[in-house]
Amino acid sequence: MTRYAVRLSRETQDDDVIYATAKGNCSELDAELVAALDRELPPETADKIKMQMAEQAPNFMSLLGKIRADRASKASQ
Questions:
Q1: Is the C or the N end of the chain the one with fewer CB within 10 Å?
Q2: SS (H, E, C) 32-55
Q3: What is the per-residue pLDDT for 19?
Q4: Is the dihedral of CA 54, 56, 57, 60 positive or negative?
């Protein structure tokens, strides 16, 4: 999703659009990961990891802020 964040943040400032697009483009990979978690781990562990994954949206928004700050810093040099 980071790759999409970097690329899409050049095209739009709408964080919700960037997140939705990145999440949509990663949905197949995400489904494969969830299936592997369910297949390979005990249910309690798999559920805990899936819950942690679901809580990552705020981290993604923070990442967008860091990308923009880094770009602004480089542009001012």
A1: C
A2: HHHHHHHHHCCHHHHHHHHHHHHC
A3: 87
A4: negative
Is pTM, for the whole model, over 0.70? Answer: no
Cβ-based neighbour number of residue 19 at 10 Å: 19
Could you tell me if 68 and 30 are in contact, meaning their C-beta atoms sit under 8 angstroms apart? no
Residue in the structure block whose two tokens are 């805990």: 48
- On the question of pLDDT at 43 being above 90, the answer is yes
Residue type, 59: N
CB distance 4 to 22 below 8 Å: yes
Q: What is the DSSP letter of 63?
A: H
d(CA 38, CA 45): 9
